[in-house]
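[job 4471] stage=fold_predict status=RUNNING
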Amino acid sequence: MKRIILIWLLFLVWQFSLPSGTSVYAALAADQSDPIFKKPNFYKSLDSQYLNCWPASRMPIPVYVYPADGVRNFRPAFIQILKSACSEWTEASNGAITFRFVDKLPEYGIFVHFESKPGKQAEGVSQAFDDRLGLSRATVALYVKKTHDSAEDATMKAICLHEIGHALGIQGHSPVSGDIMAAIDHVNENESAEQVRLTERDKNTILCILAVGPKLLKDDQADSEVIELNNKATKEILKEDFESAIHTLERCLTRCPKYKIAMDNLRVAYWNWGIKYYNAKDWGRAAYLFRKDLECIEQMKKPDASEKNQVLSALNYCLQQGTTIDSANEAETKEETAQEDPR
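[job 4471] inference complete, writing structure tokens
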């Protein structure tokens, strides 16, 4: 039985999170008949597989700015510049996207923090995450670098516009250097913050994304948070922390009930944890875990007969060692009680 644990671990399934926290479902085809697609935009330059947007049910989007006390070169004026950038995206979306700045950490929203970083020019970075309804959260880091002058304000305005654009679902960049969402410098020399504005191409592109709408997932399709939970469980299994892995995978399957990858990994966790008790001759707990493994197998659309027979053989062996069904049930009760009360 010892060699079986090595074989099963080879079937452990790890799913890598995609760039910018995006999920792995296929992109929905954009309705190219919408008039907005005929106006100047760079929608086709973006990777449509990773595009998504915020659902109307989450408007206004909460924006939380972490305290910037002690951040070198930070000025309160940067908060106003950030708010101005958000207002400009609201205008660009014809009011479809709205924001509200909050003082407490929200459950979902855009999370902004200012940081000091060595160098001559400010910059930013952002990452967006989705769930089953569309975008659910985004992190935006704004790096403050240089001076307290109008040129720095203009640069900060361009960075805020650019990073908020990513947080709103523009995954990629414009190929035109004059656009805010281009990957290169957006500010001309001697330009003020008030003069830094979204271009028509920037505005039309966010409208294209809104025209497609949020991407809704089926029961067997994973969003980025489900993928993160599965990957967390994978690490726990590799560390042989099967109990933690089972808790994590149960959370994963609560969010995505038919996610086959997580279900396969849950079976791996139950089997290998059962093998540990089997090797320790704790027949009651081993039998309980093998039964849980069988429950997972029976939920599969096409159960593998050989795998089912393997688990049944292990369960029957435990019962033959003097473990009755009642004692296995007693072990199950103990395990469930331990899970409810970590003490």
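[job 4471] summary: The CA atoms of residues 263 and 299 lie 9 Å apart.
[job 4471] exit 0
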